[in-house]
Amino acid sequence: MYHEMKTERLLLRPLNIADLDTVHEYASDIENTRFMVHLPNRTLEETAAFLEGVTQEWKKTEPTFYEFAVVLNGLQIGAVSVYLDEQKEVGELGWIFNKKFHKKGYASEAAIAIKDFALNTLHLKKLVAQCDYRNAPSARLMEKIGLKLESADGVRTYIKRNETARELTYSFTTD
């Protein structure tokens, strides 16, 4: 299955193994990934394994998740995603961008596009997104795209560094 979306400045297309170098640049950056549960990636092989899984998922007739590469002027600068629950009614939104491209509006532009895809193409009934309570830019982005704070007392575990933090959950319901 192939989906591609264009925004004013960005192209969103399936993330794949060809994006290895650009993904690894931001996925292995300790500062850039400090609020990401499963990151940083320590090796190129770890990033490649993730991208191989993503590439295989895009080949399915009905994927259980969609990872889009965010491309600016031909350069992959980040990714946005939606992961589906078993009933394919609820989707979890996510995003990560190379820190060189922070604070330029690209994340909100891509997040609005993935939200639109989740609601209008996948016809999901609810969207959720979570972030570390210390990640104010991500929380602001969730609010900017229309998600509302649902819970401020979740727990987020960073497996690779054996740390926990308070987690915020934002949501949007179509009802």
Describe the SSE topology.
Elements: E1 5-6, E2 11-14, H1 20-27, H2 44-58, E3 65-72, E4 75-84, E5 90-97, H3 106-121, E6 126-132, H4 136-144, E7 148-158, E8 163-173
Parallel strand pairs: 5-6
Antiparallel strand pairs: 1-2, 2-3, 3-4, 4-5, 6-8, 7-8
Helix pairs in contact: 1-2
Strand portion: 25-35%
Q: What general outline do the C-alpha atoms trace?
A: globular
Total of DSSP H or I helical runs spanning 4+ residues? 4
Largest sheet geometry: 8 strands, mixed
Strand order of the largest sheet: 1-2-3-4-5-6-8-7
Query: In which range does the helix fraction lie?
Result: 25-40%
What is the rounded distance between the termini?
Answer: 28 Å
CATH architecture of the domain at 5-125: 3-Layer(aba) Sandwich
- CATH level 3 topology of the domain at 5-125: Aminopeptidase
The CATH class of the domain at 5-125 is identified as Alpha Beta
Structural class: alpha+beta
Rg over CA atoms: 15 Å
Mean pLDDT figure: 95
| Weakly predicted, low-confidence segments | none
CATH superfamily of the domain at 5-125: Gcn5-related N-acetyltransferase (GNAT)
H-E string: EEHHEEEHEHEE
Strands, total number: 8
Explain what you see.
- An 8-stranded mixed β-sheet has the order 1-2-3-4-5-6-8-7, with helices on both faces.
- A hairpin with a 4-residue loop joins strand 7 and strand 8 (163-173).
- It has a domain at 5-125: Aminopeptidase (3-Layer(aba) Sandwich).
- It is globular and about 35 Å long.
- Helix 1 (20-27) packs across helix 2.
- The chain is of the alpha+beta class and 175 residues long.
- Helix content is 27%, strand content 35%.
